[in-house]
Structure formats: structure tokens, C-alpha cells
Specification:
- With 259 residues, this protein is an alpha/beta fold.
- The protein has a domain of 178 residues: TIM Barrel.
- Helices cover 46% and strands 15% of the residues.
- An 8-stranded parallel barrel has the order 1-2-3-4-5-6-7-8, surrounded by 4 helices.
- Helix 2 packs across helix 3, helix 3 runs parallel beside helix 4 and helix 8 packs parallel to helix 9.
Length: 259
């Protein structure tokens, strides 16, 4: 499983304050603590405003601190054009949906030309509830990516997790799990699957969030999840990742490590 640190996101007040203050040292310290991740997601806004200046600035900081691969969390095409050449390896672009970005063809062309990977998200204006709609949207986006000559091994399908606390949250999560299973069975050539785990616990009491996220990570890994965006600084999440990788025979298990 590919572990993507989601710690550099707009919900992290410490990080966002450091971004606003242009505090390179504070951001560097945050990045240095993400050593357990395989990849680091970088988000600096929700709507892409200002990303053309802030995102490349952050990429340069991350690149100086670590050799980890980078996930660029922006739909701002100009920001991506500036940031991609700054990455040591071709990054993962998060994301394209049926409504974002406004110029999907430009994003697909950029991905095709730069050798980057791309998250295709099962979402329109909002994430769909039904399994059928999730699969339909992913199929449409997959067709668009194929038409742009993006190889399937550079695509990650996101079934769009939503908060379990909302009225249809449980139904959403159940269908997201089934979506991962179906994609593994029917898409040929295969594509990878990805999920932003912490989305499911948003709105819950802080004392419960990581318990929910750790359990969901185990659940989705059983469905075949390939990549997970998680809080790599949390001990419960760390232990869950270690056990999932052990059960998948990706690492050698040791009781001393889990202790």
C-alpha cells in the first residue's frame, strides 16, 4: 500500500498559519516529521486561489527536506505547471472530477505531457451516493484519460469518501468499499485505487476520529485499496499501516516494531 501523508492540508491550523506567514522553518519541521509516508500531499487552498504562487514555493521546501514523492493537491493548472518541474520525480496530481477543474482537457494534456500520475475522483458537484453512479463517473473520466493517451498505470481511482456522521454517510462508505472491489475485478488494464481516509471522520469528536480512520483503513485495504491518504503522525494510524503492510507481506513483521 502506498501511504500518502495528508498532514499538509487546510484543516491543519499549524501548517496553514506557517504558510500564511511564509515560515519556511516551521514548514520544514512539519515535513521532516512525515518520514513514515511514501508520498506527501501538498494542499494550500480549497479553491486553488493563489496556488500559482504558494504551491511551487511549498514544493521547493518539501523537496529540500525529503526525497519522498509528492502529491500536488490543486486544480489550478498554472500552479501545477509551475510545480511539476520542481519535483524530483513525476508527482501525483490530485484530482480531476466531472466538475473540476474548469478546463479538464488542459489538465489531462498536462498529465500526458509531463508523465505525472492522476487521481480520477467519482464526484460531480457532490460525491454520488450509489455505486452505479460512482462507477459511471469513474468510467467517464477513465475514457477521457485514455483519449488523452494517459496510461492506466498512472491513474488512481478515488471513490470519494464522505463523512460517516452525515445522514447518508454510512451508505456512501459502503458503496465506496464496493466500488474499490468492483474496479479491481472489471477494469482492464487495471488502475490503482486511492482514498482520503480522514474525510470519513470529519465532524466527529477528536477522541473518536482516529479509531474510525484506523478501522476504515483496515476495511478498505481488505477490499484492495492501493493508496491511502492518512495522518501519518497518529500512533493508531501508524500501527494500522504497519499491520496492513505486514498482512500483505509487503514488510517483515516483528512484534518489537508494533510494540
Amino acid at each position: 500500500m502506498i501511504v500518502i501523508a495528508d498532514n499538509l492540508n487546510t484543516r491543519n491550523r499549524t501548517y496553514i498559519e506557517a504558510v500564511k506567514d511564509r515560515d519556511k522553518e516551521a514548514i520544514s519541521r512539519l515535513v521532516s516529521g512525515l518520514s513514515q509516508a511514501d508520498m506527501i500531499n501538498i494542499q494550500c487552498s480549497l479553491d486553488g486561489s493563489g496556488d500559482e504562487e504558494t504551491l511551487p514555493w511549498l514544493v521547493e521546501i518539501v523537496r529540500k527536506v525529503t526525497d519522498k514523492n509528492i502529491c500536488l493537491d490543486s486544480r489550478n493548472i498554472q500552479a501545477l505547471k509551475k510545480s511539476i518541474p520542481l519535483c524530483k520525480n513525476p508527482p501525483l496530481i490530485n484530482y480531476i472530477s466531472r466538475t473540476e477543474p474548469k478546463d479538464p482537457e488542459k489538465l489531462l494534456q498536462l498529465v500526458a505531457e509531463t508523465g505525472t500520475s492522476l487521481v480520477i475522483r467519482a464526484s460531480k458537484a457532490t460525491p454520488p451516493i450509489s455505486l452505479e453512479t460512482k462507477l459511471q463517473i469513474i468510467g467517464e473520466l477513465l475514457d477521457m484519460a485514455t483519449a488523452a493517451y494517459i496510461p492506466s498505470d498512472r491513474l488512481f481511482a478515488d471513490s470519494s469518501l464522505v463523512h460517516i456522521c452525515i445522514g447518508v454517510g454510512q451508505k456512501h462508505l459502503n458503496n465506496s468499499t464496493e466500488c474499490i472491489r468492483v474496479l479491481k475485478e472489471v477494469i482492464e488494464p487495471p488502475i490503482k485505487t486511492i482514498a482520503w481516509i480522514s474525510n470519513a471522520s470529519t465532524g466527529m469528536p477528536v477522541t473518536l476520529r482516529k479509531t474510525v480512520e484506523a478501522a476504515l483503513l483496515c476495511h478498505l485495504s481488505g477490499a484492495g485499496l492501493d493508496a491511502a491518504m492518512v495522518d501519518v503522525l497518529d500512533e493508531k494510524i501508524q500501527k494500522t499501516i504497519y499491520l496492513v503492510k505486514s498482512f500483505r507481506d509487503e514488510i517483515v513483521f516483528s512484534p518489537a516494531d508494533i510494540a
